[in-house]
Recover the amino acids of this structure.
């Protein structure tokens, strides 16, 4: 670990003239970005195009320099595939007959290869949690031939035990438990398809969130890798019927899957699947602007936030006020406060596309960075900020993985706040936002302030405020995530100010942040 003292000294020297984030621009940007006019800022939808035009105009008006040559936009070509439900079907046949799950009610599925037609017949293989993790000495596949098979697997990962309390990061979800990792692993094994068994507890969200993510288009970076021909989820209730039809009991399979000696279990079932999809390729855009640094200007600190939400689905607008207009508005206000106040390192303000579709904009940026990754010292990502009121604490998800934790404590103390004590990340939030592609690329990165806001140490009416914050779980990824002019944005200002000052401390430090543990 590098000595954080030079960074702390640099931070202390800045206290006399630190820029201040103002509430008025946050509220104005938030009200506009979450308005019905922007139609939920959907990927590949008109509202998303409007959001990009708005962001480009705003950073230009602030006098920030374009980050992509003469322009502020970075093109990310996206491939979209929308399953045509009326023309698609999945049927499972076994000794007792056939089962056909109903789309949206029992199953959701998409083409992992982004092609118009997918059709196959395949034996069904239960592969436990679908994890191959040599560093954990865990292999659910154990050499099984998965080529051409439909893999049925559980969400998340094996729980820690008394003998192994640190298994898969203990109580926190590791990257191996993420559903995206499971899809990627299944593709590497040559699977024809993969279906995850959903439960509210294991996924940490309801079936309605799953259907909201699958009933429209599913997207991937057009230049990126292709996955299994069919990818999807099934409800626990249908999984029970499926296991029984295949001669097994789902609970018994779960118990087996939690053991190291688990081996894949063939089910007495054959899946016949046909997916027809409407496929298109189209451009989306990150928006990126620079505030050049002074004596260390060849290095950069990135501030990021994703502008997209779920757009219009089934005739309803998913406005995404908290997720993620709150963060985009705050990043614009942070950039406004910073304009005219350069730090030693360059500051790059990055508004990413396609986060809700698999971190597409951040992944695309890291593949073709506008600033050399070797010269990028940190990414501070803003996500779903505090709309309830001021508090004494701030979330610092992932900060313990690098020396950003030490610096964050000092910055928080200067603002009369504390960093929340790290808690088990049971939802795997660290892997679900746009800082993570930067972290995978070796850049210290985190999302300060990312939480569902239910447990904060609120300054005013703490119990009522915590209850209000916890209510966000009921509007997450639903049309009810709408802006209310009565929202108390003082907590949002606190978070934005914290992130501004943390970023400036990183930008002015002699030494770069360094990793302490696994990414």
């Amino acid at each position: 670990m590098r000595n954080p003292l030079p960074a702390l000294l640099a931070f202390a020297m800045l206290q006399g003239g630190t820029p201040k984030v103002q509430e008025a621009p946050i509220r104005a940007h938030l009200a506009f970005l979450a308005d019905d006019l922007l139609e939920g800022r959907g990927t590949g939808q008109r509202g998303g195009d409007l959001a990009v035009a708005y962001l480009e105009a705003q950073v230009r008006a602030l006098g920030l320099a374009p980050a992509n040559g003469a322009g502020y936009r970075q093109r990310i070509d996206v491939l979209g595939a929308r399953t045509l439900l009326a023309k698609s079907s999945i049927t499972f046949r076994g000794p007792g007959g056939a089962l056909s799950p109903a789309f949206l009610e029992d199953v959701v599925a998409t083409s992992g290869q982004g092609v118009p037609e997918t059709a196959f017949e395949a034996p069904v293989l239960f592969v436990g949690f679908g994890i191959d993790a040599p560093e954990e000495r865990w292999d659910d596949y154990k050499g099984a031939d998965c080529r051409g098979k439909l893999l049925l697997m559980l969400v998340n990962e094996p729980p820690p035990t008394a003998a192994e309390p640190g298994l898969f990061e203990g109580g926190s979800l590791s990257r191996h438990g993420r559903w995206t990792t499971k899809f990627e692993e299944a593709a590497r094994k040559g699977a024809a398809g993969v279906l995850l068994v959903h439960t509210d507890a294991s996924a940490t969200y309801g079936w309605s969130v799953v259907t909201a993510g699958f009933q429209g288009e599913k997207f991937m970076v057009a230049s990126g890798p292709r996955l299994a021909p069919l990818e999807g989820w099934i409800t626990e209730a249908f999984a029970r019927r499926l296991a029984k039809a295949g001669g097994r009991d789902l609970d018994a399979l779960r118990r087996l899957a939690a053991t190291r000696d688990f081996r894949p279990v063939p089910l007495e079932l054959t899946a016949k699947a046909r997916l027809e999809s409407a496929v298109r390729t189209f451009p989306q855009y990150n928006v990126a602007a620079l505030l050049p640094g002074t004596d260390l200007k060849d290095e950069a600190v990135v501030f990021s936030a994703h502008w997209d939400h779920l757009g219009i689905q089934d005739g309803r607008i998913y406005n995404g006020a908290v997720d993620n207009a709150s963060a985009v508005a705050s990043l614009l206000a942070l950039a406004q406060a910073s304009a005219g106040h350069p730090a030693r390192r360059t500051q790059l303000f990055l508004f990413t596309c396609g986060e809700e579709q698999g971190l597409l904009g951040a992944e695309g940026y890291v593949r073709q960075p506008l600033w050399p990754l070797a010269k990028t010292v940190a990414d501070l990502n803003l996500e779903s900020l505090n709309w309830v009121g001021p508090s004494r604490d701030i979330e610092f998800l992932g900060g313990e993985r690098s020396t950003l934790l030490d610096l964050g404590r000092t910055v928080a103390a200067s603002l009369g706040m504390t960093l929340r004590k790290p808690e088990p990340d049971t939802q795997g939030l660290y892997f679900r936002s746009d800082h993570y592609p930067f972290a995978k690329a070796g850049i210290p990165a985190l999302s300060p302030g990312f939480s569902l806001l239910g447990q904060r140490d609120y300054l005013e009416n703490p119990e009522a405020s915590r209850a209000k914050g916890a209510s966000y779980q009921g509007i997450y990824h639903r049309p009810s995530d709408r802006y209310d002019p009565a929202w108390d944005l003082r907590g949002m200002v606190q978070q934005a100010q914290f992130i501004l000052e943390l970023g400036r401390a990183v930008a002015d430090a002699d030494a770069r942040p360094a990793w302490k543990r696994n990414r």
Summary: The first strand starts at residue 65 and ends at 66. The chain has 14 helices and 22 strands.
